[in-house]
Design a protein that fits this description.
- 48% of the residues are buried.
- The two termini are 32 Å apart.
- The protein has 10 helices and 8 strands.
- Helix 5 crosses helix 6.
- The protein is an alpha/beta fold.
Length: 291
């Protein structure tokens, strides 16, 4: 998960593996570099808007992008701890160009509108780290559930969303457990739930995300960073056993050589080959589970 100690460990390992020097790593993080994602083959034309979604706790600022013509399966995207920003808009647009109606949310709307940090800000900066971690501490299992229900209901109210198809949800880092709780909160609508380098999926608490997700009706894709697996090597086994016992389909894999945070294109540990492999598995799951 994204925390101070984990970040320092990741940095040491990434440097040791020959990725970049510590100074170069910091420079990339500080520059807020945004890699361009590969183009979608035969992309559909899309419409994009900043939108406001009413929840029990206020108005959430979000980004909504969908095919320009017709209705498509809805997808709810939960960003990582750095929040809604250009990288996640880019990923949302790419998914819409593949034929989905995508809502990318600002999970921190109760405290601050997006972007919650300035352009070029980096988790490598202690001040930025403290800011986003404090924002994350304002969320809870209960806010995850109430937000999920509000966002799914909003998607279902949109003409661009096909209500005859189930909804997909995907999350990154701290968004992983929120994805699990979304599947739990709206079981009749969520058909696919995807966690990319999610943290805190398995805990000892009665309301642990993995226990709640096991009561859903979704199919799961859980893409685990190699260094996250090194820190919690039994978590994948718990997840496999939990979903097998619940008779839920779950693709659970450790992505070799991929560090925590490898999927967003503005991450210093962005790993394009493994990110593209994870994205291809996402599209395969949505194609099958959201029909």
């Amino acid at each position: 998960m994204c925390d101070r100690d984990h970040f320092d460990e990741d940095l040491k390992k990434y440097v040791a593996r020959g990725g970049v020097t510590r100074r170069e790593f910091g420079a990339v993080m500080g520059a807020g570099m945004l890699m361009m994602l590969p183009q979608v083959p035969n992309p559909v034309a899309v419409t994009e808007n900043d939108v406001e979604v009413r929840t029990p706790d206020g108005m959430a600022d979000c980004y909504f992008v969908h095919p320009r013509v017709g209705a498509a399966a809805g997808v709810l995207v939960w960003p990582d701890v750095m929040g809604l920003r250009p990288a996640f808009r880019q990923m949302g647009r790419r998914l819409a160009e593949s034929g989905y109606s995508v809502l990318v949310v600002n999970p921190f709307y109760r405290q601050r509108r997006a972007p919650v940090v300035q352009p070029g800000a980096t988790f490598n900066d202690p001040a930025v780290r403290d800011t986003v971690l404090k924002l994350a501490q304002g969320l809870s299992a209960q806010t995850h559930v109430t937000d999920a229900r509000a966002f799914v209901a909003w998607l279902d109210s949109q003409p661009a969303v096909d209500r005859n198809r189930r909804i997909g949800t995907q999350g990154y880092c701290m968004g992983g457990p929120i994805v699990f709780r979304t599947a739990f909160a709206v079981p009749d609508r969520i058909g696919a739930a995807v966690s990319f380098h999610g943290g805190g999926l398995v805990t000892d608490a009665p309301d642990s995300p993995h226990r709640q997700a096991a009561t859903s009706k979704a199919q799961f894709l859980i893409a685990i960073a190699e260094n996250d697996d090194e820190r919690a090597p039994n978590e994948k086994n718990v997840l496999r056993e939990t979903f097998a016992n619940a008779k839920l389909q779950a693709e659970i894999e450790v992505y070799a050589g991929a560090a925590h945070g490898w999927c967003p294109p503005d991450s210093a540990v962005y790993n394009e080959p493994q990110a593209e492999r994870a994205w291809s598995r996402l599209l395969a799951l949505y194609s099958r589970a959201l029909a």
